[in-house]
Amino acid sequence: MSDGYMWFEGVPFPVVGYTLEHLKAMHNFVFKDEDVLILSFPKSGTNWLIEILCLIHSKGDPTWIQSVPIWERSPWVETMNGYEALKGREGPGHVSSHLPIQLFPKSLFQSKTKVIYLIRNPRDTLASGYFFWSISNFVKKPESLEQYFVGSPKEMEALVTGGRACSARALLTEVAFGSWLEHVCGWMSMRGKENFLIVSYEELKQDTRNMIQKICQFLGRTLEPEEMHLVLKNSSFQVMKENKMSNYSLLPNWLLDEKNGSLMRRGTTGDWKNHFTVAQAEVFDKIFQEKMAGLPRELFPWEGC
Ligand SMILES: Nc1ncnc2c1ncn2[C@@H]1O[C@H](COP(=O)(O)OS(=O)(=O)O)[C@@H](OP(=O)(O)O)[C@H]1O
């Protein structure tokens, strides 16, 4: 724990809300075929997707999202409280997770649980994470964007001159839940299965209605035009930002310093450009191209834009 993380099976976890005991026990969690699982690397827009799914479930009626905290509507299977809530739940429901595939409860792979994997430009994920972890006490606060990005100025220099791409923290190696690259590559092995849908933050942002329709189709749900209107309205950035059941303002101040930021920070694509130096952007490109060469470009709609 001395480095600000709780390590489990080689993966760093936040130090609040997680214990080794329940992470071990969670391995035997049994998924129901009718569950809907929302999976993502942290800071990919997960809470937005959860809100959308809750609203699809209620056909746009905001009563549920305005009266129950988001982490109770779709508990995180890896957190202590989330796991306890899910264990005691009788019927099926929404489940959320940031876990990499190798730590996931094995029952998922024998079930027909519908899985939605949310992916986001890792540059925006990195910027979002940097600002979020800076105002939270879940993990060690990053010293600077560069330190969060690559570990140290020395490491950065080595990367710029073409050296140690693989050892870099770039692309989020030693941050909560481990490496973005490994997370994405791991879960992409489920690609093509009929119970596995990939949604990108960028497409969700660009054409929210169309993506909600795609999600409904995947879930076997339909929305009347007025219901769709309500889902769109109630899951919008502004409405979510003001909903205390969804914006994390229910968390105590010692855990999340709301005076200096919020989970609902910008809600845009491409904000990384306001924070990366040219050298950082080049290093990121290089590593991204090298590591993701084996996966089809269409999985990364933000690339080349
Ligand atoms: N409704 C809506 N529309 C657009 N964007 C939204 C929305 N809700 C959350 N967000 C943005 O998602 C980012 C937080 O990601 P996560 O929810 O995955 O965070 S967490 O890892 O679960 O803590 C964080 O991104 P950044 O703004 O770039 O920091 C949030 O602003």
UniProtKB/TrEMBL annotation:
The keyword Cytoplasm applies. Gene3D superfamilies: P-loop containing nucleotide triphosphate hydrolases (3.40.50.300). It catalyses: 4-ethylphenol + 3'-phosphoadenylyl sulfate = 4-ethylphenyl sulfate + adenosine 3',5'-bisphosphate + H(+). Keywords: Cytoplasm, Transferase. GO terms for cellular component: cytoplasm. Its main location: cytoplasm. It is an enzyme of class 2 (transferase). It is found in: Cytoplasm. The keyword Transferase applies. One of its GO terms (biological process) is sulfation. Residues 33-295 form the Sulfotransferase domain. Its EC number is 2.8.2.-. Pfam families: Sulfotransfer_1. GO terms for molecular function: aryl sulfotransferase activity. Belongs to the sulfotransferase 1 family. This is Sulfotransferase.
